[in-house]
Amino acid sequence: MKHSWILLLLPLLFTACDSKKKAPGAQSAMELKKMCGHDDKEACRKLCTTYRSLPGCKKSCKLGDDFACRRQKALEVAIKESEQKDLPEQIGSAPVKWAPPKRQDPQIAQWHGELFSKCQAGYTLACDALAFYSPMPPSAQKGAKTLLAQMEAECAKNKASFCNILSAFELDRSFSFLSPPNAFVHSSKACALSHGKFGCTKAGEMALAGMGTAQNTTQGEALLKKGCDARDHAACYQLAKHLAYKEKTTSPYMPKVNALLYKACRAGNDDACSNLRCRFSKKPNRDVSPVTAKEGKELYTMGQQACAKGNEFGCLLETQMIARGLGTPKNIKKALASATGLCDKKYASACHIASVVTFFEKKDKLSNEQMAALAQKGCDLGLARSCLVLGNLKEKIKGVAASLAPLERACNMGSLTACLETGRAYESPKLGERNSAKSKQFYERSCNGGDMMGCGALMELIVKEELRDLEEKEKGFQRLLPLCAMKMVGMCGYLAYVLHKGWGVEADPAAAEKLARTRCQCGAGGACWAAGKLTAVSYFNRRLVGRVRYRARGNFKRSLEYYRKGCSAGHGGACAEFALALSKKALPSRHRQKYMDKNVKKNLKKAATIGCDQGWNNACLVKKQFD
User: Between vectors from CA 253 to CA 250 and to CA 254, what angle results, nearest 5°?
Assistant: First the structure.
């Protein structure tokens, strides 16, 4: 907050960044790495001394620098000590507190390690499998094995629905017979038997990750394509995501990815539809059922009969199917009563179902306090999903500060979504005092685990705060490129900003401005913000080189129009710039009057509030004028 005035000089800083004459010693780490790669002693030494780069120190030491040799040894000792302090199991940069069974089968322990390593490598499916852990009550363990053995026998009879549901249970760590290899076999079989209607998404992701099977990109893509062709929107979306990260390009315009997103949206994927605003109308969601109608009835009957015999796992299966309307009519009251009863018997998954089953219902909906009490039970039993729900509910009941403990707990259990939500909570103005350093830590954990939204939030924070983290800036373009290709709202705007700055790629102001302007036309608030920033840069450049004053005013007026459009789309940065410009009377009176006549003056406080609430400090400066 006390350095917020620096943001007022951003346009001038843009000009300085664009200058071809750099101050001595102002090379970036990326430039130094290239020079060091060509045996430039001075560059290697700077990498070692200024950036404490271990590879730089090693290279400099080989080139005869004694100081670099000493620094290399010191860095190696420091790294070794930090590794010894860390817990053996961690996601991203922070420890994860898991509670596996004390008497664990060696094969199960090996598979836990496999899931963990795949999660660290960025495969969300593996992270999800880890986060779904909750200890099963002893009274239910025997019944679970019995019922799943029956499901496996039905799968052997080529019943796709049984294979598909079985594979989901085999990726849940709450069972002592966790088996990624069996899960891959059963999901692949479900994909083949259902002609791609279900099972292909999971099997494709596992093949791409090498989870439960040998890593095979060709096989994974083929499975996802089969599911996509059968109108499984999740398969289309996952294939688009895979291609966006796989394609070696510096252009965010990826035709194959775009075509898959349109296909995913037409099949009913809400994520794809929400990002395809430009020249495309959103289609209603058509969720693909994980079971066929006939086999769903058989599966429900099996769970119902098992529950009647006292099999608690059968009761859980029956409850899940009633809640979703699979194989039986949907009945929220019945599902809630059943789930609450199982929750009282310390069944964590049932507590989670009970806490969320009425969430989107208009009638017979539980209060936030009632849902929080049920979520608390699930969280106390070690279920990450319940801790995440508890955090969201506590924010509604008691405020952001109350949500931090359960959200952090869920993040420590491996929930990437919880890590993202925790980062956002630390950025919230409702917390009292923002903590950008904490936000960055949790965003990194989410991003390192493979969550696209986490990577987007991390880069947004870096752009917003202008953090002096050189390593993150060097990753900026490569992290944002696939997110922009996936049409994630606002990410193309930040990509344009990073492209203009030259963070991780050669700066290209013309391409940056074109990208921002194009996405702004499609209603992306972040892109309008970037278009306004880049147009304002052009304004200052022309003014400095002595272009005519009228043209300079025209560019500045156009940048304000971009800010107004971005603010209308709800982007805090655009609102901040818009409010700042009007409050400081940056426009000549005749142009300023145009905005005043449109009641913008009445909305100035609202724009400043939106920007400040989203963490844009320059908007907070304007808001203070009204407090």
Answer: 95
Exposure of 190 by Cβ count < 10 A (0-12 exposed, 13-18 middle, 19+ buried)?
A: buried
Residue 523 confidence (pLDDT) = 75
Q: What average pLDDT does the chain have? A: 79
Rounded to an integer, what distance in angstroms lies between the CA atom of residue 70 and that of residue 80?
16
Cα distances (angstroms) measured from residue 589 to each of 14, 194, 519 = 26, 67, 31
Residue closest to 367 by CA, chosen among 347, 393, 345: 393
* Residues in the chain, overall count: 627
Q: What is the mean pLDDT of residues 559-569?
A: 82
At which residue do the structure tokens 């990726």 appear? 171
Which residues are within 8 A (CB) of 272 and not within 5 positions of it... i.e. 6 or more apart? Answer: 233, 236, 237, 240, 261, 262, 264, 265, 487
Could you tell me the end-to-end alpha-carbon distance of the chain, in angstroms, rounded to an integer? Answer: 16
Task: Please report the pLDDT score of residue 493 as a whole number.
Answer: 87
Helix (H, G, I), strand (E, B) or coil at 16: helix
What's the rounded Cα separation, in Å, for the pair 419 and 397?
Answer: 21
- Flag whether pLDDT at 588 surpasses 70: no
**Distance between CA atoms of 135 and 138, rounded to whole angstroms?**
9
At residue 23, φ and ψ (nearest 5 deg) are: -65, 150
Contact 567, 607 (CB under 8 A): yes
**Angle of CA points 263, 266, 269, to nearest 5°:** 90
Position 565 scores a pLDDT of 84
Residue 102: alpha-carbon gap to chain centroid: 33
Task: List beta partners, residue 91.
Answer: 94
* Helices 525-544 and 509-521: angle between axes, nearest 10 degrees: 140
Strands (E), 68-214: 90-91, 94-95
Q: How far apart are CA 9 and CA 17, in angstroms?
A: 12
What single-letter amino acid sits at 327? Answer: G
86: confidence class by pLDDT, cuts 50, 70, 90: very low
For residues 165 and 173, give the distance between their C-alpha atoms in angstroms, rounded to a whole number: 15
Model confidence pLDDT, tens digit, residues 10-39: 333 333 333 333 333 445 666 777 778 777
Task: Give the H/E segment covering residue 90.
Answer: strand 90-91
**Measured torsion, CA atoms of residues 84, 88, 91, 93, in degrees rounded to the nearest 10:** -10
| Dist CA 249 CA 246 (whole Å) | 9
- In 3D, which of 281, 208, 211 has the Cα closest to residue 238? 208
Under 8 Å between Cβ of 116 and 89: yes
Q: If 0-12 CB within 10 Å is exposed, 13-18 middle and 19+ buried, where does residue 216 land?
A: middle
Alpha-carbon distance values, 229 to 390, 515, 615 (Å): 38, 31, 42
Which of the two residues, 393 and 115, has the higher pLDDT score?
A: 393
Q: How far apart are CA 549 and CA 542, in angstroms?
A: 9
Distances (CA, A) of 282 to 268, 271, 295, 537: 9, 10, 32, 35
Question: Is residue 414's pLDDT more than 80?
Answer: yes
Give the whole-angstrom CA distance, residue 433 versus residue 416. 24
Q: What is the pLDDT of residue 93?
A: 46
Q: Give the pTM.
A: 0.77
Q: Which residue in the block uniquely carries the two structure tokens 């499609």?
A: 522
List, in order, residues 6 or more apart from 210 with CB less than 8 Å away: 118, 216
